[in-house]
C-alpha cells in the first residue's frame, strides 16, 4: 500500500482543516486517522466502506465519522480510466476533539456535543432537512476564515447535536481492530476483491495474497472485519446491484450476472437477506421514491 492505513492530517496554522476535493477519483486507500471527519460527496459514484459497513454512494452522500474509524470512498472503475468526463468532487472538514482546547468540550454546556461525538464513533449518515442545512453551511465555510470559520463549524456541530436525522453506519460495539503493520496485507486483499467481485473470487488466491492458509485467512478476516469473507463479497455485489437497479437500464437477470452472482435464485436470496426485499421490490420502491421527489410530481 502506497499510503499508511493510519492517515495523518496536519494543519499547523489552523485549529481545523477544511478541503474542497476535486480529483479524478477519491483517495483509493482504506485508512483511518485521529480526527473527526464531516464529508459530503458533490460528484462521483462508487462503494463506501465505513467500519464494517459497505454501501453504494453517489452525489449527496454525507457522513460524520469519529476518530480511528476506518473508511474509504472507492470510486467506480470508470473513474480510474482517465476519462475527463468522470471526476469526483467533495467537501471535507477534519478536526480533533481538542481543537478548541483540551477541556472545551468537557463543559456542561457541551453535553449534547459530547453525545454527538460518542455517536460518531460508529459513523453517522446524514439525511433530510439536516443534510440540506449542513451542505449549505459547508459551502459557506469554504469562504470563511479565522473566528468566523470556527463559529460556522460550531453552528454545524450544534445542528448535528440537536437533530436525529441521521442513521448509524457501523454495527453496535464495532471497534477498529487494525494496526498499521497490517496495512499492506489488507490493502492487497481489498484491491483483489474490488477488482474481481463482479466476476469470480478465488479464496485460495486471496489467502495467498495475505500470506496465509485459507482457513487461517478466513479466521483473520472475520476477526478484523466483523464478518465472514463470503459475506464481505456478497455485500459488495449487492451494493453494486443496487446501483444498477437504480440506474434502471438492465433487467433483474442482467443485474444478477453483471454483479457477480452465478444464479438468479442465489442473487434474490442474498439481496433479500441484506436489503429486506427482492431486487424487483427494491427497484419499484426506488422508482416510487424518485417520482415523489420529482419537481413534476
Spell out the key features of this protein:
297 residues; alpha+beta; Arc Repressor Mutant, subunit A; 6-stranded antiparallel beta sheet; 16% strand; globular; disordered N terminus; RmlC-like_jellyroll; transcription; DNA-binding transcription factor activity
Question: Overview of this structure, please?
Answer:
- Mean pLDDT is 86; it is low at 1-5 and 289-297.
- The strands form two sheets. Strands 1-7-2-5-8-9 form a six-stranded antiparallel beta sheet, covered by helices on one side. It has a three-stranded antiparallel beta sheet with strand order 4-3-6, covered by helices on one side.
- It contains ten helices and nine strands.
- With 297 residues, the chain is an alpha+beta fold.
- The protein is globular, with a radius of gyration of 20 Å.
- The protein has two domains: 17-168, Jelly Rolls (Sandwich); 184-292, Orthogonal Bundle (Arc Repressor Mutant, subunit A).
- It starts with 16 loop residues before the first strand and ends with a helix.
- A hairpin with a 2-residue loop joins strand 3 (46-50) and strand 4.
- Keywords: DNA-binding, Transcription, Transcription regulation.
- One of its GO terms (molecular function) is DNA-binding transcription factor activity.
- It comes from Arcicella rosea.
- Pfam families: Cupin_2, HTH_18.
Amino acid at each position: 500500500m502506497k499510503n499508511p492505513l493510519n492517515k495523518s492530517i496536519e494543519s499547523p496554522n489552523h485549529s481545523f482543516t477544511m478541503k474542497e476535493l476535486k480529483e479524478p477519483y477519491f483517495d483509493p486507500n482504506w485508512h483511518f486517522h485521529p480526527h473527526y471527519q464531516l464529508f459530503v460527496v458533490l460528484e462521483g459514484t462508487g462503494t463506501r466502506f465505513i467500519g464494517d459497513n459497505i454501501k453504494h454512494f453517489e452525489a449527496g452522500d454525507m457522513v460524520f465519522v469519529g476518530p480511528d474509524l476506518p473508511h474509504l470512498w472507492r470510486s467506480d472503475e470508470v473513474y480510474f480510466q482517465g476519462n475527463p468526463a468522470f471526476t469526483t468532487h467533495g467537501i471535507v472538514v477534519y478536526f480533533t476533539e481538542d481543537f478548541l482546547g483540551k477541556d472545551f468540550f468537557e463543559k456542561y454546556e457541551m453535553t449534547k456535543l459530547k453525545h454527538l461525538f460518542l455517536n460518531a464513533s460508529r459513523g453517522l449518515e446524514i439525511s433530510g432537512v439536516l443534510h440540506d442545512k449542513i451542505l449549505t453551511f459547508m459551502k459557506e465555510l469554504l469562504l470563511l476564515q479565522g473566528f468566523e470559520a470556527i463559529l460556522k463549524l460550531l453552528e454545524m456541530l450544534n445542528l448535528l447535536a440537536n437533530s436525529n436525522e441521521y442513521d448509524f453506519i457501523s454495527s453496535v460495539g464495532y471497534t477498529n481492530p487494525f494496526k498499521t503493520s497490517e496495512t499492506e496485507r489488507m490493502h492487497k486483499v481489498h484491491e483483489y476483491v474490488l477488482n474481481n467481485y463482479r466476476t469470480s473470487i478465488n479464496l485460495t488466491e486471496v489467502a495467498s495474497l495475505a500470506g496465509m492458509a485459507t482457513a487461517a485467512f478466513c479466521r483473520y478476516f472475520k476477526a478484523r472485519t466483523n464478518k465472514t469473507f463470503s459475506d464481505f463479497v456478497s455485500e459488495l455485489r449487492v451494493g453494486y446491484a443496487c446501483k444498477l437497479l437504480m440506474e434502471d437500464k438492465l433487467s433483474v437477470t442482467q443485474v444478477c450476472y453483471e454483479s457477480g452472482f452465478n444464479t438468479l435464485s442465489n442473487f434474490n436470496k442474498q439481496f433479500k437477506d441484506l436489503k429486506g426485499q427482492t431486487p424487483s421490490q427494491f427497484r419499484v420502491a426506488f422508482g416510487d421514491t424518485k417520482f415523489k421527489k420529482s419537481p413534476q410530481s
